[in-house]
From TrEMBL:
One of its GO terms (biological process) is lipopolysaccharide transport. Residues 41-281 form the ABC transmembrane type-2 domain. One of its GO terms (cellular component) is plasma membrane. Belongs to the ABC-2 integral membrane protein family. The chain crosses the membrane at residues 40-60, 80-101, 121-150, 156-179, 191-210, 258-278. It is a multi-pass membrane protein. It comes from Arthrobacter zhangbolii. InterPro entries: ABC2_TM, ABC2_TM_bact-type. One of its GO terms (molecular function) is ABC-type transporter activity. This is Transport permease protein. Keywords: Cell inner membrane, Cell membrane, Membrane, Transmembrane, Transmembrane helix, Transport. It is found in: Cell inner membrane; Cell membrane.
Length: 289
């Protein structure tokens, strides 16, 4: 049976990414090679950067501001190092994925103007590259958790997987959205930079969710929980940090029954909106670039 012919250059969808998995693999490999070309440490930077970031935050917040529980400070968080790093691992994945995806179309302008291939491949490849950097950080986190007596349940591991899916979908959707808009309005890069600057502080990466609830009340806390990144970070704390404590700590109310499904729905909606906007604008990418 003869296959139906299609006109090249027509707007596509994320299904095209699945159909062109080989091209996606090539783009991921290209981005990694270009990023570490001439670098002495190479992929080891995936360990160095979060390590330095962790040390700075741990000393400033855990030691100086007393967020680390100790014999003389019972108001802090036990195993604050695990708490902090489990949040940093996920927020680093999001910030890198969104930052690179929003610049991916403009950054690959030379290739886009020369040949046609599904444009969605570029933002998705950027998210995958961030996933490659995410893996070694997870190895360190799991190693530290095991050293601290980590014994997670299947429910906790499933919650962490759901939290990662929430953040990955959100980063992909926003990456498609801002990646397309950035072709027409380069101010989008500055807007993304501001969003990424706020992202770390708008989620309980450095502090406890109980601080938000106690200081700002239940009503604001519910709005706070509508942030999918917040839910993702809380699932990582639930899966990696909570099993290393003495059991006196708790997770946000209704995290598993309400907030994870809500976060998945919001991230899926953002992914759909990002894809629709991308399809609407991609027709003139080559001309605008």
């Amino acid at each position: 049976m003869q296959e139906e012919l299609t006109v090249p250059g027509q707007p596509g969808s994320l299904k095209d990414v699945l159909r062109h998995r080989f091209l996606l693999k090539l783009l991921v490999s290209k981005e990694l090679k270009v990023r570490y070309r001439g670098s002495i440490l190479g992929l080891l930077w995936s360990y160095v950067k979060p390590g330095i970031q962790f040390l700075v935050f741990y000393v400033a917040l855990g030691v100086f501001l007393g967020l680390e529980e100790s014999a003389g400070n019972r108001g802090g968080l036990p195993n604050y190092a695990i708490y902090l790093f489990s949040g940093i691992v996920l927020i680093n994945f999001f910030t890198e994925a969104l930052g690179n995806a929003s610049r991916s179309i403009v950054g690959n302008g030379g290739l886009i103007k020369k040949i046609y291939l599904p444009r969605q491949l570029f933002p998705v490849a950027s998210v995958w590259v961030s996933g490659v950097h995410f893996v070694p950080q997870m190895v360190i986190l799991i190693g530290a958790c095991l050293f601290s007596g980590w014994r997670p349940s299947l429910l906790q591991l499933a919650a962490a997987a759901a939290g990662f899916l929430v953040v990955a979908m959100l980063a992909t959707g926003l990456g498609l959205l801002f990646g397309a808009i950035n072709v027409y309005f380069r101010d989008a890069e500055n807007l993304v930079d501001m969003l990424l600057m706020v992202a770390t502080w708008a989620s309980p990466v450095l502090y406890s969710w109980t601080m938000v609830q106690s200081k700002l009340g239940e009503t604001f806390f519910n709005f706070y929980q509508l942030n999918p990144i917040t839910v993702g970070v809380e699932t990582f704390h639930y899966a990696f940090w909570l099993p290393t404590t003495d059991g006196s700590q708790s997770i946000p109310p209704h995290l598993l029954s309400v907030w994870i499904p809500v976060a998945l729905a919001i991230s899926a909606a953002v992914l759909l909106i990002g894809q629709l906007v991308f399809r609407r604008l991609e027709g003139r990418f080559a001309q605008e670039l």
